[in-house]
């Protein structure tokens, strides 16, 4: 009996899920008849739509609606919840540890494949700054976004109830490091939320809150252009946000943020959004990587120098055929990811069938960014927009890119309801330690609010 053609997709993020979705549609008959098999491996059973994380942190969208369940979206594929620990491409095998591996204590399972798709995405790029690893907060996952929301609201509770001015000032100071999309959008949304929330505190006013944005270069949001970047700085500073350009974080020991310009900010909140790096799983892959740890790819999205290996998204260095400058690579954003996934799936199928491959080519359309409720900037096809029109385009664009009609409808419904009713300002920090209350009742722990 002929073995089915097996396609292994490492990563269930934007590129991985969409690649598997296209393979599922185009190989529908082969999958049903057992002539092909698509295996998707990811540590989480869902894909996170990261552009909506700032709105989830601000409470505009429920966290469960910014994630897409892989098993329901990919019924024709085999979804394995686990981590790839090693790939021997010469033998076409991958070692995977699953949740059951720890319970069974029998080590990793081994999966063979015919075609390998690497789309593990990226992780936060941190620096060896004293205190950062101990007290810093990331903003890359839905868990971090909701944890940050709970944390910010918790700081308002601390400031409202303390009699110590130093504790109050540290609780009401929020430092964000990184002036890219993640940092600016997260700060804009959370500042909006906190300013709204303080109206329900009898002893806190918006002027008590201190927000600081630290950026190592001389501009923020470089993707929207220099003019809109300057406008964004003016907009943020007009909201009493302290924007520090050409400034670096030197240390965060004892929860005191020390900047390269000599400033010191005692703060209980330091959010690190200063860039990303390829996922560590690439270090376990016997394939070529460039000096930034990415997989060098051809325009066909094949890993350069490796047959039957493909890559796209954050972990891949894909040449931009539409760029004027030779050697320029495609930006790691959703605009390219969704299109790369489609071409990648088509080329994998073409490779299996011995058909010619096609190049990935897409001219950059522009960028959009939210600066909080009803505020934004957009650079689209040479046109510059700001304020409410840019914010509306930001929402419309990302709603159109949100996978599945189910999630689109739920997000749209939540936006509609949020326009009719007041914001939710409840902190559910105890969700991060759900057994604390039971441990307290059993006499083995502290009350969750005590931490």
UniProtKB/TrEMBL annotation:
It comes from the Bacteria. Belongs to the NADH dehydrogenase family. This is NAD(P)/FAD-dependent oxidoreductase. Keywords: FAD, Flavoprotein, Membrane, NAD, Oxidoreductase, Transmembrane, Transmembrane helix. It comes from Streptomyces palmae. One of its GO terms (molecular function) is NADH dehydrogenase activity. InterPro entries: FAD/NAD-bd_sf, FAD/NAD-binding_dom, NDH-2. Residues 6-341 form the FAD/NAD(P)-binding domain. The chain crosses the membrane at residues 6-23. The keyword Oxidoreductase applies. The keyword Acetylation does not apply.
